[in-house]
């Protein structure tokens, strides 16, 4: 059988690094020129994959959704793979040049700006957690101090997640066959000194599997990264949780490994197309999506990492992500990527 795979790559830089890896692989037919959309072929024995690469050329969830929808409607794939760079959500565990493979993404983003209550008669009465609520209000709601903005306003955050569960058998069929030994290793001299002794730095590069956080921002802040990890572990301070509006706090337990700006949009689009009837614009043979991200930064000190390494850390991250993506396509049990 011939498997149709759409590979989504956000940036031209990432596409070029990806191309460097794939063009020299055995059993791959790769075009000689790099374009926004490219058609690769992998063929070995009875296994053949048509690999269609689409470069978004921008960052962001909306751009990812639009590119994904366009590619899916044009090529009607069985499988979608998003490939690119990411930041680590736990620098001690997930380090530069590691690869995170996932079909699970969480997002946590503001969807409303509210006002801190000025009168005890307000129902409910919103107050920052650091300020003790007056004794009068019957329904005090504590707002996380970190969600405050300006003097009397605060962000409400809505949680959501997406899982492409139908690709679980496909991932299971390939995980144990991924060869980590061929991953390009990290040159410690290229990283900021404060990370040199981290466990994730001194060991060999690895492939890890778990949750990714889909961000609306480029995160270059240890404080904000730690805030997101803290929010991931509990919902007790969420406004919607205190109000009992549980439909707005869709969440699942699971450690966050990496952070990017496209995975939530791509997997959400994939699941929408997969579950929508073909007569209404869905893609009938689409099984699901996988995210393959190389770690290029620790979600902090990005400028120091990029400039200090002369972008070699970014090249390393995409190189290893491309290597893992190629291995997934080469070693996948194609029978698990058939819509039943």
Can you tag this structure with a few keywords?
13-stranded mixed beta sheet, 28% strand, alpha/beta, 15 strands, 340 residues, two-stranded parallel ribbon
Overview of the structural elements:
With 340 residues, this protein is α/β, with parallel strands linked by helices. The protein has two domains: 2-109 and 160-337, Nucleoside phosphorylase domain (Rossmann fold, 3-Layer(aba) Sandwich), CATH 3.40.50.1580; 117-151, no CATH class. It starts with a strand and ends in a 9-residue tail after the last helix. The strands form two sheets. Strands 1, 2, 3, 4, 5, 6, 7, 10, 11, 12, 13, 14 and 15 form a 13-stranded mixed sheet that branches. The protein is built from nine helices and 15 strands.
> What is the CATH H-level superfamily of the largest domain?
Nucleoside phosphorylase domain
The general outline is globular
How many discrete domains? 2
Instruction: Specify the CATH class of the largest domain.
Output: Alpha Beta
Order of SSEs: EHEEEHEEEEEEEHHEEHHEHEHH
List low-pLDDT spans: none
Tally of helical segments: 9
Percent of residues in helices comes to: 25-40%
DSSP summary, beta strand count: 15
For the termini, the CA-CA separation is 15 Å
Structural class: alpha/beta
Q: Per CATH, what is the topology of the largest domain?
A: Rossmann fold
Q: Any guess at the CATH architecture of the largest domain?
A: 3-Layer(aba) Sandwich
User: How does the major sheet shape up?
Assistant: 13 strands, mixed
Percentage of residues in DSSP E strands: 25-35%
Q: Roughly what is the average pLDDT, rounded to an integer? A: 93
- Rg calc: 22 Å
